[in-house]
Amino acid sequence: MTELTKKRPEYRNINAFTDLTTxxxxxxxxxxxLHRVSGALMFLLLPLIxxxxxxxxxxxxxxxxxxxxxxxxxxxxxxxxxxxxVLALIWAYLHHLIAGVRHLYMDAFHAVSKEFGKxxxxxxxxxxxxxxxxxxxxxxxxx
Length: 143
What we know:
Elements: H1 27-44, H2 46-57, H3 60-71, H4 79-109, H5 114-139
C-alpha cells in the first residue's frame, strides 16, 4: 500500500549563504531589491545630506569648507572618499526615483505582465546606472 501513495514534496529551510547565491533573479527582482537598498541608503545617509545642504548654503565661508571637503578631505578621510559617498547617494536617488515612477506607472495603468516587468526593469537599471555615470563624471571633474 505504501508503494501506491504519492510521495509528498520535501520542504526545508534555506541557507542564505549557500542557497541564495544559486538563485537567478529576473531583472524585476533586482530592481525591487535595489529599490529597497537605495531607500535604506538615503535614510542612513540623511545626516550627511543635511550637513551637505547646510554647509553649501549657509555662507561663502561654509561653502569654501564644503568645497575643501571634496578637494582635500576632512581629517583622515580623503576627498575622493566623500565623492564616492556622494556618488552612492546620486545612484540611490536616481534609482529610487526611476523605480518609483516605474511602480506608479504599473499601478496607474495596470501594466502588469511578465514582458513589461522585464522590459521596464531593464530600462530602470540601465537608465539609473547611465545617469549615475554621467553625473559621476561631472563629480570627479572629467568634464
